[in-house]
Specification:
With 328 residues, the protein is mainly alpha-helical. The chain contains 14 helices and two strands; from the N terminus they run αααααααααααβααβα. The chain is 50% helix and 4% strand. The chain has a two-stranded antiparallel sheet with strand order 1-2.
Length: 328
């Protein structure tokens, strides 16, 4: 009961790990309200939460605002509890990765005028890992299968898989999500169709004559994985925006994803370049996770490589020294 009440009250005033859009017009922006049947407990906890907010060491956080509809029921409660117990180790790792990737994804969603909380789909899809592969061979942070990725402009070949590219896969996902929302009109159904495929959802909506996600669950019209998908996203949203209140303290915050893009010739070894820059080989490979082979093949004339912010001049000089050609 306390977890349920806490999840509903936390939106009033809290320590926010990930900000929503600050000052931007947000579709369906909403704050959760205190349940009227718990006025005394609600008021007491509300005051405590406000005090915690005032002592928040992260000055850029703001009141907890959701720009997706928020439902708190037994399905969501189950996953909140799971992430606090059996799944705690995984969820802590997701939170740490999220501090690096969430700002980038939310910025792109905001730019596309989509709810920034859709970024929590990536947390559930892949835990923000570009190397994640599902049992259905969906790949990358947004878990595109090959056919859908190709439909939305992501290239897959013997040396590159753009489904693993955070930037390109996020832009592809935005196009896909816009198409899904245009058809289904509900963010819960957008998530459901993203998970199970739009054709399958379309058939179930037609069969049961309803476009209500929770009704479709009650009718067992959706695959089990899809029935759990939206509750997982909602649970992740609640915990991630107030991790301290759910027992996730002292989260290691990683540096937000930021990089320069440089044009490099074919035949460039990523490991050699990393050594030259004085960064770890893994760090540079993670920035360029779309490179299936871990390097740019000689057969490729050139490639747009992501490098640490500010490293472009060093790389230009390095490439000039190697080839005598100006690569700026």
């Amino acid at each position: 009961m306390f977890n349920g009440l806490l999840a509903l009250l936390v939106a009033v005033s809290t320590i926010s790990f990930f900000g929503s859009r600050s000052g931007a017009a947000t579709p369906q922006s909403q704050k959760l309200t205190t349940p009227s049947r718990f006025p005394s407990e609600g008021q007491s906890l509300k005051e405590k939460l406000r005090a915690m907010t005032l002592s928040n060491k992260y000055p850029n956080s703001n009141a907890l605002i959701f720009d997706l509809p928020v439902t708190y029921n037994k399905q969501v409660s189950k996953w909140v509890d799971y992430y606090q117990t059996k799944g705690q180790r995984w969820f802590r790792e997701w939170l740490e990765r999220a501090s690096a990737y969430m700002p980038f994804i939310q910025k792109e969603l905001n730019r596309a005028n989509l709810p920034t909380d859709l970024a929590f789909m990536v947390m559930i899809e892949s835990g923000f890992s570009p190397y994640s592969v599902s049992h259905a061979n969906a790949v990358g942070p947004w878990q595109f299968i090959e056919s859908t990725g190709s439909r939305y402009g992501l290239t897959k070949s013997w040396w590159i898989d753009e489904r693993k590219d955070f930037g390109k896969s996020t832009l592809a996902a935005i196009k896909y999500i816009k198409d899904l929302h245009q058809e289904f009109g509900s963010w819960y159904l957008v998530a459901a169709s993203y998970n199970m495929g739009e054709n399958g959802l379309r058939k179930q909506i037609k069969k049961h004559k309803t476009k209500d996600y929770w009704t479709l669950i009650k009718l067992k019209a959706l695959p089990v994985e899809t029935q759990e998908y939206v509750p997982k996203i909602l649970a992740a949203m609640l915990i991630s925006k107030a991790p301290n209140l759910y027992g996730f303290r002292d989260i290691s915050r990683r540096e937000a994803l930021d990089y320069d893009v440089v044009t490099v010739p074919g035949g460039l070894e990523i490991d050699t370049l990393a050594d030259h820059l004085g960064i770890t080989r893994k760090a540079l490979k993670d920035l360029n996770s779309e490179l299936v082979l871990g390097y740019v093949p000689r057969q490729i004339s050139h490639h747009q490589l992501r490098v640490p912010k500010g490293a472009s001049p060093l790389i230009s000089k390095y490439l000039e020294a190697r080839s005598g050609k100006n690569w700026e």
